[in-house]
Amino acid sequence: MSAKTKRKPRAASIGVGVIGYGYWGPNLARNFAESTDFNLAAVSDLKGEFADLARRRHPGALVTRDARELIKHPKVDAVVIATPVVTHHALALEALRAGKHVLVTKPLASTSAQCEELIAEAARRKLVLMVDHTFVYTGAVRRIKELISKGEIGDIYYYDSVRINLGLFQRDVDVIWDLAVHDISIMDFVLPQRPRAVSATGIAHVPNGRPNTAYLTLFFEKDLIGHIHANWLSPVKIRRTLIAGSRRMIVYDDIEPSEKVKIYDKGIFIDNSPENISKMLISYRAGDMWAPHLDITEALRIEAAHFAECIAKSRRPLTDGEAGLRTIRILEAAARSLADRGHPVDIVSPHAGR
Amino acid sequence: MSAKTKRKPRAASIGVGVIGYGYWGPNLARNFAESTDFNLAAVSDLKGEFADLARRRHPGALVTRDARELIKHPKVDAVVIATPVVTHHALALEALRAGKHVLVTKPLASTSAQCEELIAEAARRKLVLMVDHTFVYTGAVRRIKELISKGEIGDIYYYDSVRINLGLFQRDVDVIWDLAVHDISIMDFVLPQRPRAVSATGIAHVPNGRPNTAYLTLFFEKDLIGHIHANWLSPVKIRRTLIAGSRRMIVYDDIEPSEKVKIYDKGIFIDNSPENISKMLISYRAGDMWAPHLDITEALRIEAAHFAECIAKSRRPLTDGEAGLRTIRILEAAARSLADRGHPVDIVSPHAGR
Amino acid sequence: MSAKTKRKPRAASIGVGVIGYGYWGPNLARNFAESTDFNLAAVSDLKGEFADLARRRHPGALVTRDARELIKHPKVDAVVIATPVVTHHALALEALRAGKHVLVTKPLASTSAQCEELIAEAARRKLVLMVDHTFVYTGAVRRIKELISKGEIGDIYYYDSVRINLGLFQRDVDVIWDLAVHDISIMDFVLPQRPRAVSATGIAHVPNGRPNTAYLTLFFEKDLIGHIHANWLSPVKIRRTLIAGSRRMIVYDDIEPSEKVKIYDKGIFIDNSPENISKMLISYRAGDMWAPHLDITEALRIEAAHFAECIAKSRRPLTDGEAGLRTIRILEAAARSLADRGHPVDIVSPHAGR
Amino acid sequence: MSAKTKRKPRAASIGVGVIGYGYWGPNLARNFAESTDFNLAAVSDLKGEFADLARRRHPGALVTRDARELIKHPKVDAVVIATPVVTHHALALEALRAGKHVLVTKPLASTSAQCEELIAEAARRKLVLMVDHTFVYTGAVRRIKELISKGEIGDIYYYDSVRINLGLFQRDVDVIWDLAVHDISIMDFVLPQRPRAVSATGIAHVPNGRPNTAYLTLFFEKDLIGHIHANWLSPVKIRRTLIAGSRRMIVYDDIEPSEKVKIYDKGIFIDNSPENISKMLISYRAGDMWAPHLDITEALRIEAAHFAECIAKSRRPLTDGEAGLRTIRILEAAARSLADRGHPVDIVSPHAGR
Q1: Owning domain of residue C194
Q2: Which residues of C286-317 are buried (b: 16+ CB within 10 A; e: fewer)?
Q3: Which of A59, A255, A258 sits opposite D59 (nearest CB)?
Q4: What is the domain-level CATH number for residue C147?
Q5: Which residues of chain C make contact with B60, given a CB cutoff of 8 A?
Q6: What is the pLDDT of residues B174-216, one digit of tens each?
Q7: What is the pLDDT of residues A133-174, one digit of tens each?
Q8: Interface contact A290-C290, CB threshold 8 A
Q9: What ipTM was reported for this prediction?
Q10: pTM listed for this prediction
């Protein structure tokens, strides 16, 4: 039996190269290695220690410390970039110019101008440009999207997220670019509206450091507000999002081993009986709670399959360059607001300047 | 007077009248009734239904629907006001003018000008004016105050509180005046600094309603920031405060039946070795966690004893009129900021205008 | 009789006397005092300190240290007994003989023979004899009963309960009589079968003391088993019951402030495909979880109303003398098994000896 | 310096072969592959699907479906057996006879006679025989052992463990052999005494099946008791152990992401004042709680290093054949007791029959 007639023809699978094998890269490499859509052709990392680790784990792949060698490699059809943010734009641009499809870890790039350049380059060359907004591919977030889309939650009142832990202080990004970006990308996916302005506050507790504790309020249309608390200096790890609507309310707790998404049949109703001077104009109702069984497939596995499908069928990913750009525009506005103690800053619409 | 009669001098006990027997009044009345320092001389409530309930529970007390009758009653030496905020100033002023000591539920009054008038009136008549900042008298908050005062936490980095639940929408106050006021009064008690400015955001989900979801960032001196999330529209009840310092970190969870205060021997330290382009400049350490055994005496019982002591010894309460005023000034600044989407507003120092 | 006087017929309300004002008595007295079906005519306690407390809280009631005075009191139609177990039988018998209806806190008496005597006496005099199996009247247990009765859970596989805390070591009863009795009475109410035998193990950690840590296995018909862990020497308080059935599974956690009852759409199904030597003969399914909104009315309030209704309509209470007797028979069998290191002991059927 | 003289000389590392690549085998294989003490020379699994997976993940190892080929392989110095229990004895014996060191997943074998044969064979050949009692190598259990050994807990009162979840029903072992075995091996490691008798109860809910719900009480000397609840049919996963002593109490919750071990400064003290007929003879004290920071190194990594050290230095492992035998003797006694509804069964001392 020839190799070609095997169940999943290797010959047709997509060769992928992963740049950056530090914190997140190994997860990406593992998922691409175990995917039948891809073959892990190459891994690169500047650090010898990480390159060695990659070599032990992926003996079949080319392992190099030179990202350029990886990008140019003929067996590499798609490049996955898992390096510090400052390097995203240059590496992604080089990969696109070499004719490779590109998946970049979040955030897509350091500035919205860089994002626009990548989007344009990918469009020109008809290549897939995707950003690794991982949470979008989790069973929990996909279920929340479905609940909101079907009207189960009603009109959305607020999205409130706490994403805090004792974390590494990163040198090239602040806590908003590191943690709040997850919530911004989830909101981008699940909410029916896009934010118009942001008020951000925060603080850097390290001399000359970047903010490690930050609060963002996102202003949408009337009746919807978003808020994110991102923090690298918390004694406990919390990953909890509340989404309240006119019909139901969601608690999404990503730390929970099971029942990550709980839906509460709770809410308020307006009672106009002119009974009391101070209270009970608005009443509330408390009903059942329900935790749907969720798909527990690893998000990166689903994301890899989606990347493969987009490449094969020339489709636009759920988390495409535009999603990456929208996210960066919010991060940029938040940075300006934070520097001005919460002064609200309008968010540029992606197509405003065109 | 013999030793035997000295211990519980019924004759010498303070006659107290409680105005308002709706939500919080019964707790105050019960604690004053069970205190040996006081005798519950009178209760008043506008509503017949609440007056009836008071009559059943406190058969020895005068029960009336007329607060003035209570204030004037000769057996009433001290007046406790547990009515809607809009009525605080008028009732407290009348009680002070009638020569009675006054304890007012939070917030002290509707405006800082009203607070100043009450403070001045109490000072003129040498009467005790106290505000019921209940949490200040809990075992948990007293322990936190002690830990901070003794330097166990180090320099305070932030105070972050989430105080949310599905609650009654009140007609006369918004969620900041109803819930955030608790955190503002706790901060006033435990923190070594006073806030200088506030950025507040929020939203009213009910037509013509007051904000029911609000976020406050309090700016202190460099390196300390405060944040409060107050919400009447949450599917779950959360009462959790994080206080991080340079030496240790506190998680205060008031929902926990025991171990409400946990102290984490965690933190960051700065490592200046120029090793890596992106990470590990700042490292963190994770040590033991410790939950001290707390005094579980009901806060109102301790508060009542403190009120009695202040009356007996002409002392200034821990939560005096000034504490009430400082709190109101923050609430006023927050309201202005919230109306302007987070635009920072300076907080007037209590003595600034004098 | 006019409609107005009909609703709250004070004259027709039942005079109740509460014997024992230590730990549980105050809760009973408060609920009877606030019930419109009853008037709290008298309270008695041997200890002056508790009698004093009762006098302050219930100024309208006769307060005495002599239980006999209370029983004989003409305004007392019903007697509630909240004293140590050793005194239950004598007090209840005296009250029945004085023509009073009787409610006894759990367990009903010290021996099954005593229970039988009380049952016979009440029957002879056509008086209500009720045992305070409090949990039976909670919203949680009533909902569980309903779920099981309607077949929502399917065939019951097991009832497993952990009821532990750091508790007072009682002198007159062991931990089985103090804590496990709650689960035995809940099982008596919710399960479709009655236990036939028991294997109990346990230990006394205090010289000459009674067991403070105990484990009971209750054997029912084939396919149903019960187990209780009762413990006075646990660092944490746990009140959790698992009830698994062929269709669904219940977790009842009484410590949870809300969502005390969770229903899991989980289970097993038998797959007879002869595929593997070691696994997967039986497969399992995991579906949604659901927490129904529960009635949060205080159990004693519902219990008091039920007691009133049984008196008024000469009905048999849900937790009648027979329920008390069945419970005692299990406790007696468990004591014998525990003394013999778990040797199984058959449970006498209530009507076996008749 | 040549590659050969590098820090951890490959040539001197121990060649290891892993038999069984189903559920637990991959974890063992991964840890041995990443250990510098070992090189993963071979993997075998009867199932082609699992063999294929091993081949993808460990391209450098021989992968075969024939365990004998693996055992005989000259590069294999040590054999790790992760197959169904029924096959342990034959495979381990064959490996020992081939002169290989052996690590067997728990439980060591199907009968105590089999264990004795393996122990004798290993002793005769001076080979290391180790059983994979994984929990013994966790940071949590090692810390508990240390606390008990140093007298921090005082005299141990009880060890109570709940180890339940919705699990695969295994064909060759029951839930005691699958889950309770973990607690028996932890007790063997941390407790200062060995159990003398066991009372076990349980039930099989599947026709002709093995028990899936079981309760074991272990009788030690006076004042110490052990209890295990093992269950494959629970809607929730619980892994919680309570260990109470005369000085302190431990809660070990393996589900907790952090703070797995909590130490409570709680206990009882005997107060002989003859005050009350029913209560307070024994009083209790409640002090602080403390959660030590634990080593979070993966247990299998530490276990692999220990196996290597025992091989290199001809040492007896912490979890040697005798530990495996003691565990099996308890399992055998429990099985007899369970068949007789909890009738207590003495546990044969390992050296009794010699």
Answers
A1: 139-294+329-346
A2: eeebbbbbbeeebbbebbbbbbbebbeeeeeb
A3: A59
A4: 3.30.360.10
A5: 59
A6: 999 999 999 999 999 999 999 999 999 999 998 778 999 999 9
A7: 999 999 999 999 999 999 999 999 999 999 999 987 777 889
A8: yes
A9: 0.91
A10: 0.92
